[in-house]
Design brief:
Oligomer: single chain
Helix content: 55-70%
Distance between the termini: 36 Å
CATH superfamily of the largest domain: P-loop containing nucleotide triphosphate hydrolases
CATH class of the largest domain: Alpha Beta
Radius of gyration: 27 Å
Shape: elongated
CATH architecture of the largest domain: 3-Layer(aba) Sandwich
Number of strands: 8
Largest sheet: 6 strands, mixed
Structural class: alpha/beta
Order of helices and strands: HHEHEEHEHEHEEEHHHHHHHH
Number of domains: 2
């Protein structure tokens, strides 16, 4: 009994493990242009001088995390956003890598629950490009709550104008992007550090208590949204890993298929395919080796039957203009079966990982046969297009390339669901 409990514990998906490790703090990603006052804001909230500040220069060179015991949230400071596609993409890539690493390593400090997008209140600028940038950064963390924070809000007139401007810009953006609107919850003006107007007058800090209290108020909703995103990111990471493995195995099988060996007897394909299938099972942390072996053996058996049968070979020969040289047909058969087998394993092991199916209560022969019937037509169609584009002048290498690309398409579009679902 003790060993069963141990195995059950191991089968808990990574995203559930991360959520279980939650330390009751939320993480706030702080974005903004260089010089808008992100670091000054962080220091004011921490009541310390931990984040470096500067005048007229970018002082944050990398992503850094700031927190203390009193605050129920962490602040993740980022490199300043600038206008310019190259720099924007570089920053977005750095943030995406940072977040994905958090999910991979179950590091709760690298998850995202909320965003403060800081805008210099004296510039009076928030346009569709800025809002599009915010949305693109939150590509993985869909529907994450966003606070627009106008820093350096030194005058009442600027506060009113900026608030009106932001509301209008956000409404316009969301009307143009109804399927993926920005989840802006608050527009908050602040002054993080006293600002001397002259020798006698200083604008005092303001708005920080409002920013903190509203952040805390939205924390439960932010947590719930983030938990859903963690699951998606975890599966996206595993999908990408499976994608790479299946693509490489498909290319290898296609090359082997081009060798002068009768495909049904080409036992060299079995290690390639079985290695691929076991690798996908490992990616999805399938611990029950007995059931995993049953699935793998069933996929190989059905694949071999399909390979040896006339169905796939006849379909490939029927492609208009297809070069029916034995090496080309064998390569197409070997690659097609390997790709289909890989995609099927990705679907089944993903469903087992997410507890959508019970590994021990499925008729695997029926399930696998159905999935082969679902996926082989799409593969044949892709080869048909390749043949048409090249007037039937295709070889094993080009077949391997198109099937490897198709692997990425399948894994991206289907996300673990069959067409019948």
């Amino acid at each position: 009994m003790a060993s069963e409990k141990k195995d059950d514990k191991k089968r808990i998906p990574k995203y559930e493990q991360i959520i279980a490790m939650d330390d009751n703090k939320i993480n706030i990603l702080i974005l903004g242009t260089s010089g808008c006052g992100k670091s000054t804001l962080i220091n004011a909230i921490l009541e310390a001088n931990e984040a470096p500040t500067g005048v007229g220069e970018a002082v944050t060179k990398e992503i850094k995390i700031y927190q203390n015991e009193e605050l129920p949230f962490r602040m993740i400071d980022t490199v300043g956003y600038e206008y310019g596609l190259f720099r924007q993409n570089k920053i977005k890539h750095a943030i995406a890598s940072f977040c994905k690493e958090g999910v991979k390593t179950a590091d709760v400090e690298k998850l995202i629950h909320m965003i403060w997008f800081c805008i210099d209140g004296t510039t009076k600028r928030i346009d569709q490009e800025v809002l599009g940038y915010i949305k693109s950064v939150t590509n993985d963390w869909k529907n994450v709550p966003v606070f627009v924070v106008f820093t350096k809000s030194y005058s009442r007139i600027e506060i009113e104008e900026n608030t009106l401007m932001a509301n209008a810009a956000i409404e316009k953006y969301n009307n143009s992007h109804k399927k993926r609107p920005l989840n802006v919850k608050e527009i908050i003006p602040v002054v993080a550090k006293g600002y001397p107007i002259d020798d006698a007058v200083t604008v005092a800090p303001m708005g920080l208590d409002d920013l903190i209290s509203k952040t805390i108020a939205f924390a439960p909703e932010a947590k719930q949204i983030s938990e859903s995103a963690i699951k998606e990111i975890d599966l996206k990471i595993k999908n990408a890993m499976a994608n790479s493995l299946i693509g490489a195995a498909t290319t290898g099988a296609t090359a082997v298929g081009a060798l002068p060996i009768p495909i049904p007897d080409a036992t060299i394909l079995v290690p390639i395919q079985s290695g691929m299938l076991r690798g996908v099972g490992k990616i999805y942390d399938i611990q029950d080796k007995g059931v995993a072996n049953e699935i793998i053996n069933t996929i190989l058996k059905v694949g071999a039957t399909t390979m040896a049968g006339k169905g796939l070979l006849s379909a490939l020969k029927a492609i208009p203009g297809m070069n029916i040289a034995a090496a080309v047909l064998n390569a197409a058969v070997a690659g097609s079966i390997t790709l289909a087998a890989g995609e099927i394993s990705n679907i089944l092991f993903k469903k087992a990982y997410t507890n959508e199916i019970d590994l021990k209560s499925v008729d695997w022969s029926k399930e696998v046969e159905t999935l082969f019937k679902d996926y082989l037509p799409g593969i044949i169609e892709a080869l048909k297009k390749l043949s048409a584009e090249r007037d039937g002048k295709i070889d094993a290498k080009s077949i391997g390339e198109v099937l490897a690309v198709l692997a990425k398409t399948f894994l991206k579009e289907n996300k673990g669901k069959t067409k019948k679902e």
